[in-house]
Amino acid sequence: MGELSETVLFTNTAVLDAAAGAVAPGRRVLVRGGEIAAVGTDVEAGDARVVDLGGKTLMPGLIDCHVHVNAHTADLSGLGDQSPAYVAVKAAIELREMLARGFTTVRDPGGADFGIHDAVAEGLIDGPRIFFGGKALSQTGGHVDMRPRGRSVHDDHQCCPDLGLVCDGVDGVRRAAREQLRTGAHHVKIMLSGGVASPTDRIDSTQFSIEEIRAIVEEAEAANRYVAGHAYTARAINRGLAAGVRSIEHGNLLDESSVELFLEHDAFLVPTLVTYRRMAAEGAEYGLSPANLAKNEIVLDAGLRALELAHRAGVNLCYGSDLLGGMRRHQLDEFAIRGAVIPAADVIRSATVTAARLLGEEARLGQVAPGFAADLLVVDGDPLADLAVLTDPGAHLRLVMQGGSVKHGALD
């Protein structure tokens, strides 16, 4: 489970300031009580364990705003029929691996529930702290309606480990949103358009009526929570943003009109480019059907263009991976994909300070600064100069600390 939190003084380190996009060498960082107590050039603490980092970079733990910890297979239509115990064990293994990649926090917008959240929070299993949405909401025939065309019944029991819940009508979606919020969900995820991994919808469809979307947003806002919306096309994105959806997941087919709405509402975009690359390369191996692979081709190349357009306009960008099954081992590749078109500092911000703001944790996560949680990575190299420092943890990641406790590596 990792070493217990202790008072540690890191010396001779280059601190990566994610907000400023700069590295400050020759710094000292004091960690006490699970938090960062001080950062500077002359920090002292007589009771601290002193760790000389030899000039290595100390940076904030990474935040992935779009993971599915239950999705150990890309065949999502069969996931709900599996044993919840089996899926939970698989999720625990994946969470431990995410933490070892440097992700100290993740947001799961479909599948993770209060049980897996509590298991991590109580230290029963090692993993990133989880901001969960419970089951994603879908209309009949929408993106998480996994029934084939010939099946009319579906089982929405809470303990079925599928990723979503089918609901219709203003009263129905209100009830469904309230159910997720009742369990402690940090946000409500809804399907605004069709998707790749679902069996019967189209990528270019819109889903839920405007009245249904607004009802879900009202319920989330009443609970001081927000709505995350899966959407690809500009039409679907714009309907969601105009109705008050706070984050758009994917957004591969957005246009200039979408960008204007993002800026007007100070909304967030969570691209997930790596998942389309990996589904094209190995999706069939992990259970994706030929029909799903054909839909993947529609959004594969458009994602980079959408990222460039949103970045140039100053849209809030957050890091997301959305990988399924064995493809989740490529979680860090999103850094390289984005780094080919936008500056490294902005890519890192998307996985730290901007992601923390989406989560409502901008005063606690995403920076190496006094008062912040001691979620820290020690890396050999400067990620601002070369994002490969982050994409190859075996070669560069020396330590993962979460809440002041060492989770990967050791305090030498």
From TrEMBL:
One GO MF term attached to the UniProt entry: hydrolase activity, acting on carbon-nitrogen (but not peptide) bonds
Coiled coil: none
Start and end residues of each Amidohydrolase-related domain: 57-403
PANTHER family for this protein: ALPHA-D-RIBOSE 1-METHYLPHOSPHONATE 5-TRIPHOSPHATE DIPHOSPHATASE
Protein's name in the database: Imidazolonepropionase
Native organism: Glycomyces sambucus
